[in-house]
Amino acid sequence: MTRLRVGVVGAGMIAQVEHIPNLLALRERFELVGVADPSQTVRAAIAERHGVPTHPTLEALLAERPDAVVVAVPDALHSDTVLAGLDAGLHVFCEKPLCFTDREAAEIARRRDAAGRVVQVGYMKRFDPNYQAALDFLPAAGRGLRYVSVEVSDPDSWPFVGHRPLTRADDVPTELADDLRARQRAQAAEALGAAVDGDDLRGYADPLMSGVVHAVNAVHGMLDRMGIPQGDVVAGQIWAHGEGGAGSVSLLDGQALWHLAQVLVPGVAWYRERYTLHFDDVVLELEFPAPYLNHQQTRLVVRRSDGGRLETLHVEAGYEEAFVREMEGFWEAATGAGPARNTVEEAARDSRLLTAIAAKAIAAKSVPGTDFASTS
User: Fold this and answer.
1) Contacts of 10 (CB under 8 A, 6+ apart)
2) What is the per-residue pLDDT across 114-154, written as a single tens digit (0 to 9) for each?
3) How far is the C-alpha of 38 from the C-alpha of 297, rounded, in Å?
4) What is the DSSP letter of 16?
5) What is the spatial distance between Cα 321 and Cα 22, in angstroms, rounded to a whole number?
6) What is the DSSP string of 91-157?
7) Between the N and C ends of the chain, which has fewer C-beta atoms within 10 Å?
8) Number of neighbours of residue 133 by Cβ within 10 angstroms
9) What is the pLDDT of residue 372?
10) 200, 346 Cβ separation under 8 angstroms
11) Beta-strand relationship, 244-251 and 232-239
């Protein structure tokens, strides 16, 4: 079995709780050759905890001569880090969102193709066993689709990461933090076509681009399975001081509606992520557990009626961990053992839809007496 030499750049929560432990566990497929992070505190903890080399910069990590890199830096640094990995001839796994703008996505795709390498985006839900089982229940051509509902209530992960040791960075240089904020504002302004800050910037960058983007990608996968084309964004909203984001998308020439919403509820140790697809004669419901509670089964329920009798089918496709399966999928794509999944093009479509939702929400605020954007 081909063993990929892999480095991790960015050692925050997702890297410490999922990617580093999972790469080490998949030792037949990966050799973790190093971790890069600007925090000396985090580097010391990683080195002590896992016994792997650590580095302050990506450039230093590249001296370990990896075959691939896992990008888990803050969102505004994703695009530049992915490009640096491709320029070094590496396969790249990047956490979501891949980038904010079509320009960045096009450049990543161009350099990916020139390098002949794989770029996979971290949408682990596509690898969830019950998500994949749900695809088999979807009717061809979306026959009878009426409504898609996505509802996410998130306490911002704090109740669900205690099972892994986690060291927070408290020593990142001020100039790096300032640069990160400047990059985020610049990328949002380019994507939206106007400068944004405060609640609008937070709503766009957090509950939308970094939160419900998972659900957008998952629903896009379902629509693709049914052959339903991209819909039109008809409404958007940002509320709760930028900690809530929502949008509505018209599908099938207005015959169906897709509504999605994510809200941060920091004081309640409870997580819900529920997708419900309503068709003329069947209702499918997927409810995902909190992401970091590994090997918890996603609940898939199929409801139909035979006359006046309701039939409810509870599907259990397995307990395999989606975070692990996505790394196995990355290994397969990088070694030629399987297809590339969660591609640049798919990620660009997700970002484009969420940008349109944010633009609708922000535009509504400029209309007196209006706080919800729509086409009417």
Assistant:
1) 36, 37, 71, 72, 73, 74, 77, 81, 95
2) 999 999 999 999 999 999 999 999 999 999 999 999 999 99
3) 35
4) I
5) 10
6) EEEEESP--SSHHHHHHHHHHHHHHT--EEEE-GGGG-HHHHHHHTTSPGGGTTEEEEEEEEEE--S
7) C
8) 17
9) 45
10) no
11) antiparallel
pLDDT tens digits for range 285-312: 999 999 999 999 999 999 999 988 999 9
Give the containing element (helix H, strand E) for 167. Answer: none
* Distances 172 to 176, 184, 208, 299 between C-alpha atoms, Å: 7, 17, 26, 40
- 369-to-122, 237, 352, 363, 372 alpha-carbon distances in Å: 39, 14, 27, 12, 9
For every residue of 341-363, DSSP letters joined together read -S-HHHHHHHHHHHHHHHHHHHH
Closest CA to 265 of 350, 374, 155: 155
- Is pLDDT above 50 for 374? no
Please give the distance of CA 334 from its chain centroid, rounded to a whole number.
20
Tokens standing for residue 364? 């509504």
Cis peptide leading into residue 97 (ω within 30°): yes
Place of tokens 């030499």: 5
Four-residue CA torsion sign, 288, 93, 344, 363: positive
Structural contact between residues 58 and 81, judged by C-beta atoms closer than 8 angstroms: yes
Six-digit token pair at 136?
């088999």
Tell me the one-letter amino acid at 33.
V
Q: Which two tokens stand for residue 87?
A: 């320029």
Q: Are strands 68-71 and 4-9 parallel, antiparallel or unpaired?
A: parallel
Helix or strand or coil: residue 219? helix
Kindly report the pTM of this predicted structure.
0.95
> Residue 313 and residue 220: Cα distance in Å, rounded?
24
CA-based nearest residue to 232, from 211, 253, 213: 253
Distance of CA 94 to the CA centre of its chain: 9
Rounded to 5°, the CA angle 177-183-188 comes to 130
Sign of CA pseudo-dihedral 271, 206, 95, 117: positive
User: In 3D, which of 93, 79, 87 has the Cα closest to residue 30?
Assistant: 93
